Amino acid sequence: MNPARSILLAASQNAWLRDHAAKHKFVLRTVSRFMPGEDLSDALAAAQRLQEKRIGSIFTHLGENIKDAEEAAGVAAHYLEVLRRVRERQLNAEISVKLTQLGLDLSPEICYGHLKRIIAQEDAGRVVWIDMEASNYVDFTISLYRRALQEFRNVGLCLQAYLHRTKDDLAGLLPLGASIRLVKGAYSEPPEKAFPRKTDVDANYFELAADMLRAKKEQPAMRAAFGTHDIVLLQRISEFAASAGLAKSDVEAQMLYGIQSGEQERLAREGYTSRVLVAYGNHWYAWFVRRLAERPANLWFVARNLF
User: Which residues belong to the active site?
Assistant: First the structure.
């Protein structure tokens, strides 16, 4: 693994750094590149600007590993408010939730109760996305996703290409008509669980993407979304989709706010489905450092803000 990536992933779990990071203005300036602000109103305004460019949004309220039942209920209530305000503003926006933020560490039943309420309030034509977290949560997450899929069709799941197990997980989900967002993965995992080399992750990502697109051709209602800023990889995926007879709109790119903005706009102009993950909230530290770890070259951006 890239040494810089290893250091950043370790830093993302450091409580001292988390508590002190927000005190430094240069850190806050850097974070502002990847999120429009800490408040929902900031996210809504960003989504409005993106919509004017024919780009959809996916909102995620930052935070994870909640162990207080009242706090988890508050997160669920917040997402219900998000859905209300999105509908009110007629925004092309969906939401993406972390199950540990909805109380998974407390109880799968508590978590599923909150998840069910959220999905039930979303419009049938829009997907509620479930984020994937560290490898020790994969079985719980897939189990709750399968349960939700039995009740609702408008629910999607994130899978991580760097995990060895993902090929089998995907193979079990695609026959169910599952909507999948494929990412490379942003947690620190041992080599027995995840591919340590980027070339292996990229190769697995393309293979999984091809499986998703084949399933999309057979089941048009499913969503095949690709969460990556790797332009070369996205081009390969687009070419594969075209060779398989799929429309450009069947290829959905989901990128982060503030990264590859020009590419997001190009994809939308050319007829691909382009969406941007708009993160907000004050629990940004771990999420932000994992974003740096995904592409350590972003450290140059941090350095420019510092100096």
Answer: 131, 181
